[in-house]
Amino acid sequence: MFFLVRYFHIDIIVIALLLSAVVYSSAYDVGVDYHATEADFIDSVFITQYHTPNVRSTVLTQLQGITDRGATFVSLRIWLVAQPNGSADPNWQATFPLSDQEKTNLHQYANDVASIQSAIDGHRLRLDVCLLWLGAADYTIGNLTVDFGYFHLNASEFTLRVEKTVDSVLQALANVKRPDGVLLVQTVYLEGEVMIGAKANQDWFLATHYPRFIEVVTNANFTPSVYFLVDGLEKHVLQADYIDAQFPALNGHRSMYWVYRSLNFMKNEKLPLPSRIDFSCYIDRQTATYESLISHIIDDASASLSVLGAPDLYGVAETYYFVDDTQRNEYGQAFAIEALLNPRLDRLSFWTTPDAGGQGVNVAYPFAIEDFLLPSSY
Ligand SMILES: *[C@@H]1O[C@H](CO)[C@@H](O)[C@H](O)[C@H]1NC(C)=O
Ligand SMILES: *[C@@H]1O[C@H](CO)[C@@H](O)[C@H](O)[C@H]1NC(C)=O
Ligand SMILES: *[C@@H]1O[C@H](CO)[C@@H](O)[C@H](O)[C@H]1NC(C)=O
């Protein structure tokens, strides 16, 4: 409510924009980066232990609450980490490639997400899935001439396992439909926070695996993608005199430093650019408003990425979930206002655990999803 009041005395045109945008407000989706039942990430990541009845029933309860409070999608991360030799790994570590139990769990989870319906307004969820590669699957360790990952897999073995992982994820998710006939899964991300130039061997990883990934994900009728990382530090976002030594399109648009470099790499490699540009967006403010920073960031994206032929459509794939109610509401509403004023911002999902509220500040269900929703009910 309070941000509307602030707009009311600024300009009648802004009010008109707000009101007209409310009509198609359902275009802005809010979701949760939901992968754990509690704040403790190590133990409470659920996909590896979904066959445990009380884990599954807790997740079902939480999904219902998430939906009732207005989320329209959940976004699952799967951390591929462990060796497939049956050692007792912490719950957050899925196996590289997925074990049979994990495949079964993923399929069951997808069916369960598909079954959820809001008790308030009857809407249902969509599901996104993002793969993340660490430990045995950490391609930033090693190199092409030696081997990759914590356990020294050679390149052909590594690629074989990536392909097996992708195939089994798709097998688990394929054709899972909601009772209203809608395919449950929307986007499958091969990697999160892609930063070409900052993460060793990521160029190799994408060039080698993304083409096949696009093909098999598209064949499953899902949208293949990766997401990028925005530099949300206030002094970088607002650095009007920023000059990029390599890419003049970035002059004055420093927030896009890594997004631009990553998309530029994809373009040079003739990898199709995503149909919507998604990124993590953690805004660290000093004195500016969150509204001015997010609108600056989206303007930076439009101005610089268009040079590469990227679509002018954006999704926030991760962002803060502050534990302070006032700060979180102000933060969430800044994104919602940006989406109202400019439908380039298509959706947002916020991070949970670990570190959603800042380093060491983990959050868990229940979530105040309304803080991020459009003010269409006002
Ligand atoms: C599993 O494999 C890893 C890497 O080869 C090894 O370090 C670990 O000891 C193995 N664990 C078991 C239980 O065999
Ligand atoms: C690859 O890694 C090995 C072992 O760390 C190292 O000796 C070699 O110089 C690296 N090669 C390249 C091309 O970086
Ligand atoms: C790569 O590793 C796999 C599994 O350890 C092994 O079977 C294969 O022979 C290795 N390939 C090369 C080219 O070293």
Automatic annotation (TrEMBL):
Keywords: Signal. Residues 1-27 form the signal peptide. It comes from Rotaria socialis. This is Uncharacterized protein. It comes from the Eukaryota.
